[in-house]
Each structure stands twice: as structure tokens, then as C-alpha cells.
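Usage example:
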Amino acid sequence: MKVAGRHYRTIWPHEDGHSVEIIDQRWLPHEFRVVTLKTVEDVATAIRDMWVRGAPLIGVTAAYGIAIAMHADPSEASLDKARTLLNATRPTAVNLRWALDVMRDHLHPLAPENRAKAAYEKAAQIADEDVALNSSIGRNGLAVVREIAARKKPGEPVNILTHCNAGWLATVDYGTATAPIYMAMEAGIKVHVYVDETRPRNQGAQLTAWELNEHGVPHTLIVDNAGGHLMQHGAVDMVIVGTDRTTADGDVCNKIGTYLKALAAHDNRVPFYVALPSPTIDWTVRDGIREIPIEERNGDEVSFVQGRNEKGDISLVRISPEASPSANPAFDVTPARLVTGLITERGIAEASAAGLKAMFPERS
Ligand code: MRU
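Running the assembly step on the lines above writes:
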């Protein structure tokens, strides 16, 4: 995607041949900053503290973390230590574990002296594959947007509601939920996006809105609680969200608040789609509510809000009494029965064990 006319991915190798550069998402939309990650500890901090975030990008960043660890010390012990460190950074997005497993399986059989080069090549391959997966998701999702557009009155946009940031910034390029939106724009279909602000970290207000602006996509920022009202009044034609982990039975874990949007969509017969690359499917779990670990983040993310003050400084302000404790579950699970379809790189699957098996027969 382009930022001020220049094409960027969210992560790329540094010219020194071993570090990686990332867009440090903590400062958006106010400042566009690029930082260099030099050690596996830097990479762990960047994932844990959400300098990078979004399930696919977390996976790719972890893969580069392994490569950096192999550059420093290619021993078996170093590989194990790096995997353990990175795996503990964020518990819900399954792409993290997936990428670490792919890296281990690739590097383990190699002699230590060959591991660093192989690790950078494999991480780059995972990054390129992410871009290809998202572009296929975009093409498959475009068919749904096109179908809805055909039913609209001439000149009326397709109104799409999205939650959190499942855009370019959450992946390497294109995004998952945003890929069909960008492709619809390219195809000349009029779209308009309702962007949930997504408390507590405001990924919608700070990241999705920024991305859509950079790309010239018409959009409106709304508070998280507005979605149900808009759906009741026919203002939303479809919902598209991303996911951090989808089970073999089609339950969808995504940013906290997604479930409430799915309930409102179901009650108002608004189609609710989830866009996901296959590495986000956890074939080892079936019941999302009982089996997916939900990350509990620091309550300060609820009690404080970050913004730019009138002096132009980016700062945190407290919005609740100091004495009030806060709870901060970061994700929730939307049961498969509330999901209209799973937009994957292979096509649109029914959110069920049978639907996923039919789309990915090699997994049965
Ligand atoms: O806590 P975050 O910002 O990492 O959560 C991100 C999301 O919930 C996204 O919707 C999900 O990772 C899908 S990204 C394509």
C-alpha cells in the first residue's frame, strides 16, 4: 500500500542483511515512524507491546525474529529459546504458533552453519505468501461486494462495517478484511466503510481510518456501540472482519466486540463475513469459546486513552477514577452459526466443519 505516494510493506529486511524494519504502529495516525529490530528480544517486545499487531503480521514478524536469532547463534538451544520467547508474546493469534512451527520444521534438519541464510529466506517466503493469500481473499470477497452492489440503487455505495484493524497494517500488504474493499474500489464499485473505533486500543480509529484515508476509501468513524443502531436502520449492507484464530468447526475469535457486531448483524439479517488466510485456521481446536486462550491485557489500556494534545504531543490521558479497577479481555469468540461465510484464499467457505473440510480437503 502507498503512504504519501511511496509503496510500503509493514515489514521488510534492513539493508544490513540481518535486522528488520517495521512500521511502528504505536504512533499512527499522528506520526509515521519506521524502527529497526536488531535482536530477537527487540522482536518479542515489538509483538508483545503491539508495535506490530494483527494475526498475519505477528506471524511474519515472529518468523523474522527466528531468523535474527539464527544470525546471532544458530545452535539448537538458540532456536528453542527464541521459539519459547516469541511464542509467549501474544497467546490468541494462532499465526504466531503457525509461523514458529514452520520455521522450526524448516531449520531443525539443517546444519547450524546453514540455518541463518535459510531462516531469512523462509521468513521472506512467508511474507510473500501472506501478500498472495490476501490478494486471493480480496478477489473472492470482491464477488460478494459486487453481488450486493448489483442490488443497490444506481449511485448508492455498498456500506461495509468493519471492526478493529484487519487491514494492510495487520498483514504484510492488502489486509484481509480490507482486501475486498480495496479491490472493489479498483473495480469501480462505490463503497463506504463504517469504521468501529475499537476500544480499548482504538485500532479502528487510529489504524483502519488512517489506512482508508491514505487509500482514498470513503469511510465514517463510529463508536463501537453505534453498529447495532446503524444495522437496525438499514445503513449497513455487510460486515467484514478479520480473525486471530478460527476453529476447525468455524468459530471465529477476533478483537473484543466482534461477537456483539455478529449478534446485531444476525438480528438484522445483515451478512456477516470473516476474511481469513488459512494459517489463521487452528485445526487442533473445535469449540472456540472453551478452547481458545483469550489474551488478558493490562487494564491501563482501558483506563487511559492515547491521543495528540493541543500542543501537538502524543500523550495518554486517564478517563476513569484512579480507584476503579479495569478488566481487559482482548478478544472474543463469535460462534459459527452467526457467520455468513469465511472468505479464504480458496473461496468462500461455510463456517462449519463440513464447509472448512470441503475447502481444505487435505486437512481431513
Ligand atoms: O490486538 P490486535 O490489534 O493484534 O488484534 C487484531 C485483530 O483482532 C484483527 O482483526 C485480526 O488479527 C485479524 S488481522 C488480519
